[in-house]
Amino acid sequence: MEQWKMLKSEYIHKSPYGNIRKDRCELPNGFVIDDYYVNEYSNWVNAVVLTKEKQLVLVEQYRHAGNDIYLEIPAGKKEGNETDEEGIIREIKEETGFVSHKKPILLGEFMVNPATQNNKIKTYLLIDAFKEYEQDLDETEEINVKLIDFESFGSLLKTNEIKTQLFTANAYFMAKVFQSEN
């Protein structure tokens, strides 16, 4: 299989939240797509955060595009020259006030949606977390911290009893597999 050939590329929109790029591409069979749109977003990190009591630390917040309130695992973008691990530790601390003396465990790295987006997400597991700080939220964040039993969260996902997003569900099941293997 061959990659597509980019014939032309231009930005339609740029903002701090992401860019929209319009590409003209030639497929290996010679067919040309004149207007293939790519959403450029920053890479981000997220983490399943577990307390010693096997409570899952979640953040509840309004998501404008989804027009509702969602329960999610802590997540965000790296800042400055942070490593991915430093970025997720900072995000967890800011959003929840939780920390751990243990290093985050990398569960996986994935493209978000390579058909139309260029960004990746790295998913971590942080165990033995405990509340040490108050939240330190940005002016655009309003977050409630919720603790839910780790084992029962899977049932809530399967029965759609909570509103969440794909990355929280995926991270949860990855953490569940990791926990069962270790």
Per the CATH scheme, the topology name of the largest domain is Nucleoside Triphosphate Pyrophosphohydrolase
The CATH homology group name of the largest domain: Nucleoside Triphosphate Pyrophosphohydrolase
Largest sheet: 8 strands, mixed
CATH architecture of the largest domain: Alpha-Beta Complex
Helix coverage percent:
10-25%
The poorly predicted ranges are none
* Number of structural units classed as domains: 2
Instruction: Determine the N-to-C terminus distance.
Output: 38 Å
Structural class: alpha+beta
The value of Rg in angstroms is 19 Å
Per DSSP E runs of 2 or more residues, the count of β-strands stands at 11
**Average pLDDT rating:** 96
Oligomer: single chain
What does this protein look like?
The protein has 182 residues and is an alpha+beta fold. It has 2 domains: 5-40, no CATH class; 44-181, Nucleoside Triphosphate Pyrophosphohydrolase (Alpha-Beta Complex). It has 3 helices and 11 strands. The protein has helices spanning 84-96, 150-158, 166-181; strands at residues 5-15, 18-26, 32-40, 44-51, 55-63, 68-72, 75-76, 98-99, 105-111, 120-131, 144-149. Strands 4, 5, 6, 7, 8, 9, 10 and 11 form an 8-stranded mixed β-sheet that branches. A 3-stranded antiparallel β-sheet has the order 1-2-3, with no helix packed on it. A hairpin with a 3-residue loop joins strand 4 and strand 5. The radius of gyration is 19 Å and the shape is elongated.
